[in-house]
Design a protein that fits this description.
It is a single chain. Helices cover 73% and strands 0% of the residues. By secondary structure, it is mainly alpha-helical. The N terminus is likely disordered.
Amino acid sequence: MRRYGRCVAAVLFFCVMTAGGAAAQQTTISVNTLRVPEKSRDDLRKACAKIAKRDVAGALKDLNSSLERAPEFADALTVRGLVRLQMGEMDDAKADLERALEIDPEQADASLNLGTVYNHLGRYDDAMRMLARAETHRANSWQCAYQMAQALLGKQDYAAALEAVNRAASLGGEKQLTAPLHFVRATALAGLKQYPEATEEAEAFLTQQPNGPLAELAKSLLQRIASVQRPGQEGSVAAALTIH
């Protein structure tokens, strides 16, 4: 559940923009939402409050209740899809987010998070398509740029991935995901055979996050960089070292 802290922030931002009820924010509520029974909207608000308290089971119960009353409530589908994404339930997350977009094609959050799901599933072309769609609504989203970097790494387009991750950092991602940004840069730079720079980025990542699955990948990357310097060991250093 290491990713759950980011899930809380993302879900709460979405909840404020869709179900928060502040008068100044009412223009952000979709026509689809206005057609939803008040009880379903109330269940969504309760789910968001429980997410803030990290009560995932309670939040899912409220989201399920909301959707039982209003199966085409795109906002609730989007929030449930994001929660399921962060829980690692990719198939269920995919189903919720795809359905949300069928109902409301303007759901930028659903597009962004569906792009993230596609990255996890290795469907990089689909991820890029969804992320481009999200960027039409959020041109300066570091989240979109960061996930685009993931997709480009998956396609081994390292120059474009490096450009995307640097853009994510410049848009505010540096304050949110400092360590993962170092890892993505390291992988892209290794793919470009800029090994001293890749080594620096990988070591910076390990300084901040010395343990966990990504740390093991960073160590593996450093080992590959070291081995490629030896005669007869040339090859793709960065292949398959992607982060979602």
